[in-house]
């Protein structure tokens, strides 16, 4: 295969990968993960593209004398949901970008 043919083949693979990445990102935006804290008293739901879409708090955990505990539970639930969302995205996008090494490309951040 000539160098030009190699470049053309590589460009086709990159274009295919870009289309797959776009599709995966659109799908991730529709998927959600939910995490909880305080034994389920606080729940946070995040999309696959790291958008916080809901926070649910059981009324029984709202204590005006201990707002700090509620804040800590909300923070813990949101952070856990964000971590789960990042892991989901990494698995989904990693399968697509894994082929870059086969093309001799090393693209940090993908």
Walkthrough of the structure:
54% of the residues lie in helices and 16% in strands. Strands 1-2-3 form a three-stranded antiparallel β-sheet. The protein has a single domain, classed as Nucleoid-associated protein YbaB-like domain (Ybab, Chain: A, 2-Layer Sandwich), CATH 3.30.1310. The protein has helices at residues 3-30, 67-97; strands spanning 32-37, 42-47, 52-57. It is rod-shaped, with a radius of gyration of 21 Å. The chain has 110 residues and is α+β, with helices and mostly antiparallel strands. β2 and β3 form a beta hairpin.
Sequence stretches where pLDDT stays below 50 over 5 or more residues: 102-110
Count of separate structural domains: 1
CATH top level class name: Alpha Beta
Helices and strands, in order, run as: HEEEH
**Number of helical runs?**
2
Distance between the termini: 28 Å
Proportion in β-strands: 15-25%
CATH topology category name: Ybab, Chain: A
Strand-pairing-aware structural class: alpha+beta
Question: What would you say the CATH architecture is?
Answer: 2-Layer Sandwich
Number of strands: 3
- Name the strands of the widest sheet in spatial order: 1-2-3
Largest sheet: 3 strands, antiparallel
Q: What percent of the residues sit in helical stretches (DSSP H or I)?
A: 40-55%
Q: Note the quaternary state here.
A: single chain
Secondary structure elements and pairings:
Blueprint: H1 3-30, E1 32-37, E2 42-47, E3 52-57, H2 67-97
Antiparallel strand pairs: 1-2, 2-3
Helix pairs in contact: 1-2
Quick rundown:
The chain is 54% helix and 16% strand.
